[in-house]
Amino acid sequence: MACSVQCAQDYVSDARVDLIEQLKNLPLIIEKLYQKKVLNNTEVSDLEAIPEKCRKARKVLDWITNKGKDACLEFLKILDLERKSVLPLKLHTWISHFSFGEESDDIQGPTSCHEIRTLLKTKAKEILDQQCKRSNHFFGGNAKQKFTYIPLVLDRDTEKNKPHNKVIHKSKKSKKPRGKKLRSYIPKDTCRNTPEDLLNSQEKSILLVGKPGIGKTTAVKQMLYFWAERHDENLDFMFYFDKNVLTNIATSNLQSLLLDTLIMSNADLRQKAEEITQYLEDYSEKVTIIFDGISGFHDNNILLRIIHHELLPEAKIVVTCRPETEDDDFFDWPTCKVYVQGFSEESIYTYLTQMPDQDPELVNSVVDNPALFSLCHVPMYAFMVAACFSYYTSEGAHKQCTATELYIRIFRHCIQRHGNKKLRHLDAHIKDCKDKILLLAESAFSATKLKTINLEFDYSDSCIAGVFLRSVSVVSPAFARTFCSFLHNTIQEFFSALWLLEKPQKLHEVLQLCQTEEYKHMKYMIPFLCGLLSETTIPLLKCLFPPDQPKGTCHGFFEKVLKTFLHDEPDEEYSVDAVFLCQCLNELQSSEACLWFLERVDYSLDLSEEHLDPHQCCAVSYVISQSRDKPVHLNLENSVVSLSGLKTILRHSQNLRDLSMTLCQVWTAALKCEQQSYLINLLLLCGKEIYLPIITQKALHQQAGEIITQSADPVILHLCCGQNPQQLSDAFCRTISTWLPSISSVHYENVYEV
């Protein structure tokens, strides 16, 4: 592509073969070159004497390229001005890609077209500003005002890159750990395609396919942003139509579709509407049209003619649709299909770190929670996660947001978006859709019980279930069958819990199944059910269930859960899963239930050998915070605890007994397996205090010594021992003496044997 006047000679030379074969109306070109004094009388006479078209074209090109860049520039200007007469449609795009620079103002179109482009760019910026304001509303007025694009995974439909909207599953059950299963939902961005790449490509027809909320609109709005912010001399146009506009198109006239709303208040441009439309038709390669949300517009003749290039034959047409409609006859046109897959791991992290007033601890709490992190691969879900965290960490909020409440708000937002309802009408709309929602919940429960993500559920694009589902192809030898599945496994578990709330008589059966090896996976719907029964979330579900129904189910519910997961004489197979029960209690948000649980475990939480992420630590911290008169013993022996999670637990250290022992266990585990950066931050978190067992391995003492001696400030050393301080060996005393310049004080802590 040429970029300046100096490139004109190369631009002509590069297209020499095509020009020789395809130039039309050579007498007109020769006459125009003569008028511009590029050719003289003798040269014109010599050309007229050549009968063969190709020989004549070759001679013209030889002369103008030999005459230099100025002659080539005049030649290109003539081709641009007379393109309809001298160039085939195939070369219209070629000539439009040449940037003529300041010397070509006379061929850059009428003034009215420049005014239209200015209006289109202003409108594009208004559309992007409106999106920012809507985001700002969700973030309580703290969102950034500038449109920001986080890279999406955009996969082209090629033989080497199969579309991912129809997922291929093996027939046998997967035995991946739950964390790996959840991570598998996150797409990998191997191709690195961008909206700018699509916009700048030679493709004239682009179809972006993806589920609701997966990022289709974000991708095309990035195209809009890129065009609106671009500053160049080329006169080009971009028209954007969203679904709301598309559903209300009543015109069958190209001029009305493109210009009516744009020039409504400009009398001068209204008078020049025909001139503008004619220019757009003559120079259609300068036009890009985005139809964001095509669905069910088969009878709209004007859209059909534009999409199939009957009108504006050289325009770039970009269309977004859902997977259910991509194979519709409406899209039976030569096109480049691009599948929008959502955020990659890198993009999820980028999105979370760019949250308004983001708290690094909150970012880590999502990143370290496999369920929440993988859920965020859907941009709409990531948006709701960020918005909820932003609200619950604001000055006006005095409590944390549970995972269930987060999913309920995602659920409500998706339905509101699907029904295009005002917030004040949302509850009534959900109530109208109750039967369909519960039918989907029943299907989710059945699939969860069978340990599959494949649902045998009939739905259409317009059905409310289409907001949460995607197509799935299950392939086995010599057989393929199409099912549907939820966009994320945890959304399926959430809907399963909704069904349990509707059918509480099944609760006993589910709790019994959770204790078996075959159905132990069903326990993951229990925390969601606890959350649905919380007094905090009951008001959000009054449109689905009468308030008395959850309250009736809640009575005696957690007692049944405890009887299921707590055993008077736990054996090796069914040991107490204290972390899981803490998560259930955190979702239930009931002080009474917490106290009952603590009494059952004698105020002792055994979390030894656990790997605790921040989300789990938050649940443990909540249970500890509910203890009243009796402190809790926390056993973290050989446990790995994230720094942010440990900080959350230590906020309620006043409710812990044997705190020194707990911190000694944390330091012992950390010195065994953590990196030095973790140890340095752990030292800061503990207020420059380090807790060491007296009887331990020499390697741990060496590691601790490095942290102590490298500290910029003096360290307080706590030596944890049993009832007899004489356990301190001479060798360890000599080791401590080498640390003394970096130690402010040494304390003996009598704890139980570590």
TrEMBL record:
- GO terms under biological process: innate immune response; regulation of apoptotic process
In this chain, the stretch annotated as Disordered covers 161-182
Where does the UniProt annotation locate this protein? Cell membrane; Cytoplasm
This protein's record includes keyword Lipoprotein: yes
Q: Which CDD domains did the record assign?
A: CARD
Coarsely, its chief localization is membrane
Query: Which key words tag this protein in UniProt?
Result: Cell membrane, Cytoplasm, Immunity, Innate immunity, Leucine-rich repeat, Lipoprotein, Membrane, Palmitate, Repeat
Query: Single GO cellular component annotation?
Result: cytoplasm
Task: Please name the InterPro entries in this protein's record.
Answer: AAA+_ATPase (IPR003593), CARD (IPR001315), DEATH-like_dom_sf (IPR011029), NACHT_NTPase (IPR007111), NLR (IPR051261), NLRP_HD2 (IPR041267), P-loop_NTPase (IPR027417)
Q: Does the keyword Transmembrane helix apply?
A: no
Give the Basic residues compositional bias ranges: 163-182
Q: Which residues form the CARD domain?
A: 4-79
In this protein, which residues make up the domain named NACHT? 204-323
- Record's protein name: CARD domain-containing protein
| Species, as recorded | Pygocentrus nattereri (Red-bellied piranha)
